[in-house]
Amino acid sequence: MKLLIMSDTHGDEDIIERVKGYHPDAYKIIHCGDSELPYTHPSMQEIERVKGNCDHDPNYLEEILFQVNGDRVYVTHGHLYDVKNSPMKLVYRAQEVGAQIVCFGHSHVLAAEYIEDTLFINPGSLLKPRGIKEKSFVTLTITPTHFTLDCYDDNNNLIDKMFFER
């Protein structure tokens, strides 16, 4: 099962459409907030999406939780959990909701870490990356034994690959 995960596009509807087109086989598409587009914008349709600190449409939720093949996926932007300083508040929230996968943004830093049996993924930013020069998004392939995270630039060039045993 493959998830396509992006964040922090800050009003760039064209990049959202382009990235959606790169991986049409994705089971779900996730946007971790700060799209700065209306909730009902055509580019945001058929996307699991949350409210970032720059999103002002009241229809966005601060967090969502859904199942993928028995795994609980928790999505939030991250600003409410102070993710720029420490992952711990988000780790505690993941434990509260029983998540095996957490997707978040806010820091614009591409990162992934396996903490206490939960995979935490920040896909970076498709507009203003920090820490690397590439604008980024990720795909996550979920199997019963491992997670594979493929990190791409905005032209769909692979920039990193990470494996996490479950």
UniProtKB/TrEMBL annotation:
Its name, as the record gives it, is Phosphoesterase
UniProt keywords (A-Z) are: Metal-binding
Enzyme class, spelled out: hydrolase
- Write down the required cofactor(s): a divalent metal cation
Tell me yes or no: is Metal-binding among this UniProt entry's keywords.
yes
- A Pfam family annotated for this chain is Metallophos_2
Residue stretches making up the Calcineurin-like phosphoesterase domain: 1-143
The keyword Metal-binding is assigned to this record: yes
Q: Which family does it belong to?
A: Belongs to the metallophosphoesterase superfamily. YfcE family.
Which organism encodes this protein?
Solibacillus faecavium
Q: Looking at the record's lineage, which domain of life comes first?
A: Bacteria
Give its E.C. classification number: 3.1.4.-
Q: List the InterPro entries hit by this protein, alphabetically.
A: Calcineurin-like_PHP_lpxH, Metallo-depent_PP-like, Phosphodiesterase_MJ0936/Vps29
What lineage is this protein's organism placed in?
Bacteria, Bacillati, Bacillota, Bacilli, Bacillales
